[in-house]
Amino acid sequence: MKECTLWYGVNSRKPSRVCLGIKTQKIGAGLRNGPGGMIEKGETPVETCIREVREEIELFLDPKDVKPVGQVDFFFADNLTDEPNLRVYLFRSWVWTGKATNTAEMVDFRWFPLKALPEDMMAGDSLFVLQACKGEEVRLKIWYSGDKKEVTKWEYRIG
Q1: Whole domain around residue 17: which residue ranges?
Q2: Closest listed residue to residue 36, CA positions, set 23, 114, 124, 147
Q3: Which CATH number covers residue 31?
Q4: N or C: more exposed end of the chain, with fewer CB within 10 A?
Q5: How far apart are CA 34 and CA 53, in angstroms?
Q6: Rounded to the nearest 5°, which phi and psi values hold at 129?
Q7: What is the dihedral of CA 54, 57, 59, 62, to 10 degrees?
Q8: Residues 11-70: pLDDT tens digits?
């Protein structure tokens, strides 16, 4: 199982909004998301989150401001086991330093009201992005089709 992180920067103005960019590489390329990436050996999920946000959009996070909001386990069509292909640890922050900057990994950052998230996100994101941005705990399993463009099954986990 691969493990990675995903971060959402949420402003505190009314209405609350989240900054999303377009991924240029790997799963989800061409779609909007927050920055994130694979946990490297010896890193904690929080350390990975901070590193990935710095590398992908050039924002700086203080560990005390990085709040865990849950995890999503992804299963791909060829997986016939109970172990997910990918476990994503979700984080959000209200505070950061810098301005989101286009990089080789993410471009075209925009602020979206939480009540009007964009449609050009991965199919499963609608199941958890709003809750994560609000700081609600997310525990979710998502199964994707072979091309990873459709959710074939999902279930929320309690606890």
Answers
A1: 2-156
A2: 23
A3: 3.90.79.10
A4: C
A5: 9
A6: -60, -45
A7: -50
A8: 877 778 999 999 999 888 999 999 999 999 999 999 999 999 999 999 999 999 999 999
